[in-house]
Amino acid sequence: MIHDQKRILVTGGAGFLGSHLCDRLIEEGHDLICLDNFFTGTKRNILHLTGIPNFELLRHDLVHPIFLEVDEIYNLACPASPIHYQYNPVKTVKTNVMGTINMLGVAKRVKAKILQASTSEVYGNPTVHPQDETYWGNVNTIGPRSCYDEGKRCAETLFFDYHRQNKVNIRVVRIFNTYGPRMHPNDGRVVSNFVVQALTNRDITVYGDGSQTRSFCYVDDMIEGLIRMMNGPDDFTGPVNLGNPAESTILDLAEMIIRLTGSRSRIIFKPLPQDDPLQRRPDITLAKKKLEWAPVMEIEQGLMKTVEYFRGVLEKK
Ligand code: NAD
Ligand code: UDP
User: How far is it, in rounded angstroms, from Cα 246 to Cα 215?
Assistant: First the structure.
């Protein structure tokens, strides 16, 4: 047992980011509870951890209250890709609002520190570029993305109200587009879509004219940021942006993936989904200053690791 071993709860621990976070926390010797309802997560993502004495898996839906004794909570449970969070939008809101209240209730009762995985989507279709944490956002309250965007905004509100009202020790990070191994192959997110399409030589589906931008962060960099924020100064609640400021158009991303995979895929253009943000790039000055954090993985290197992962997934099929 390590000297500063903590009991840590990761909600959404069987998902893409959650499973990588579980890996890191187990590596550090902590006692871990991974909670998931397996809506978008899978047991495969954490199979290698089962059987380890300090790893515990709980099938539970966060919408329902739960009583646990922990020192820290990373609240990641929530489907993150548009097709998944729009599949049952009411449930997405419930997870973000009721689920978050349930976790803040645990934190309040047992005096645990709690970190919220918020999102760049709180900025909506931003009119300020790049986005820093002082920007309040430009979000449609009634569109198809609203269940996620407004759900996450309300979760942030709840975090700060529990902090002010009940002195809960909170941390809020706004995660920008993150990619890497264990992304769901069919979740419709752009990196997984393009890589799978390229590896199978199918058409690469660029939505709109591909001039919209995103800034892609490799998963290991993101996990490092989450852990630094949880262990950062107690007076630093955030919100803090975590993401890679290297911005790329979606068309450039498609061309890069074709080149890296040596694919025969053609690029085709499909309609841009409603409310799809035109541009997105984090200003990470605050994370650099307060957490001494900045991403280190170059996009081509990170994409190659992702390509290798999906090659393995497709070979098994
Ligand atoms: P993911 O869909 O792979 O993981 C989410 C996990 O939460 C899944 O394992 C899912 O089964 C679980 N879950 C969903 N609803 C639940 C519920 N009601 N009860 C219990 N478990 C539930 O997504 P991800 O990319 O790993 O995202 C993790 C978190 O980070 C999410 O909160 C997401 O909003 C946030 N985030 C991710 C990104 C990104 O680019 N990946 C960007 C911004 C924010
Ligand atoms: N996108 C695309 N083709 C795809 C999937 C997504 O052109 O097959 C676009 C999408 O319209 C958006 C960007 O890629 O402009 C990022 O989409 P994703 O769903 O990954 O993330 P988000 O829109 O939530 O940032």
Answer: 5
The distance in angstroms from the start CA to the end CA of the chain is 39
pLDDT tens per residue across span 269-291: 999 999 899 999 999 999 999 99
Instruction: Report the predicted TM-score, pTM, of the whole model to 2 decimal places.
Output: 0.97
Using only C-alpha atoms, the chain has a radius of gyration, in whole angstroms, of: 19
Token pair 């769901």 is found at 184
- Is residue 210 a contact partner of residue 254, using CB atoms and an 8 Å limit? yes
If you take atom 11 of ligand 2, which residue's CA is the nearest one? 207
205 CB within 6 A, ligand 2:
yes
Tell me which residue of 85, 51, 58, 53 sits closest to 73, measured CA to CA.
58
Pocket test of ligand 2: the residue of 189, 257, 265 to mutate, having most ligand atoms within 8 Å of its CB, is 189
Structural domains in the chain, sorted by start: 7-180+217-244+281-296 (3.40.50.720)
Q: Of residues 74, 85, 148, 179, which has the active-site annotation?
A: 148
Residue 205 φ then ψ, to 5° = -95, 100
Closest-CA residue, ligand 1 atom 14, reads 78
Number of the ligand closest to the Cα of 210: 2
d(C-alpha 14, C-alpha 162), whole Å: 27
Query: Judging by beta carbons within 10 Å of its beta carbon (0-12, 13-18, 19+), is residue 42 exposed, middle or buried?
Result: middle
DSSP 139: -
Among all bound ligands, the one having the nearest atom to the CA of 148 is 1
What is the side-by-side strand order in the sheet with 31-36?
55-59, 31-36, 7-11, 72-75, 113-119, 170-175, 240-242
Question: Is-catalytic flag, 207?
Answer: no
286 close to 219: Cβ distance less than 8 angstroms: no
Task: Take residue 245 and report the two structure tokens written for it.
Answer: 């400021």
Decide whether any atom of ligand 1 lies within 6 Å of the 79 Cβ: yes
Quick: pLDDT tens for 79-104.
999 999 999 999 999 999 999 999 99
